[in-house]
Amino acid sequence: MKLREFLQQQGFSRRKIIAAIDAGQIFLNEIKVESYGIDIQEGDEVVCEEKSWRCGTTPDQTDSHLLAFHKPIGYVCSKADPHNAIIYELLPKEYHGWYYIGRLDRESRGLVLMTNDPKMVDQYEHPRHGITKEYLVTLNKSFRKQDAETCLAGIHDQDEFLQCVECHPLDPTSYQKYEHYLLPNLVKSASCVMRIVLNEGKKRHIRRMMSTLRYHVEDLVRIREGKVELGDLKEGEIKIFS
User: Fold this and answer.
1) Superfamily assignment of 132-225 in CATH?
2) Lowest-confidence pick of 42-46, 86-90, 159-163
3) If you count Cβ atoms within 10 Å of the first and of the last residue's Cβ in the chain, which end, N or C, has fewer?
4) Which residues fall within 8 angstroms of residue 169, CB to CB, at 6 or more apart?
5) Local structure of residue 39 (DSSP, 8 states)
6) Residue 71 in contact with residue 65, Cβ under 8 Å?
7) What is the pLDDT of residues 151-208, one digit of tens each?
8) For the domain with range 66-125+232-241, which CATH number is right: 3.40.50.300, 2.60.40.10, 3.40.710.10, 3.30.70.580?
């Protein structure tokens, strides 16, 4: 079996595998891996992003579980980061081995789903499964109608194609529905709050789109992943789903 196939079975996308190799985070029998096309054998030990597996061993039969976490600003979605606080610092120790589903950058806040089942990561993250993510994005100025059309059509940035499923400003009369998600001081001074829906979340996806269109993101909060909503979950709190 190829290393790539093995890691994809554990829930890693091809893009994540390449990024982990570039970052020097994949090891085979304690030797750093430089290509995902190498063969692995039964009994080999594979380490990726500090998670380890023994090839050919019986899979964990533990039931799959899902956890909703309200990430505050100032934390990154990572197992280890020498320069930033990580989300696991806010989680009880029994969840330190769980996998996060989709990242939020340090400056963003809101819903982060986590699971003990790596296959569930792919189910939520890969666009072929059609699971959408919803965000409220506060901008520094009014949003032009033609720019919404551009976001729906898609933008090329840094050799990647970035696109929204839905993208429109909130009518000020509808703020009440979302006011518990928004930062009051920014809403009063900002020119626009956007509702944006993605079916694939690439690195700093929304921020890069807005920057290309010459907007500055004042605040970004994820309020839904699939059918799971942030709801009234407070910052730093978790909710377990069976």
Assistant:
1) Alpha-L RNA-binding motif (3.30.70.1560)
2) 42-46
3) C
4) 142, 143, 148, 192, 193, 194, 195
5) B
6) no
7) 999 999 988 999 999 999 998 777 788 888 988 777 666 678 999 999 988 889 999 9
8) 3.30.70.580
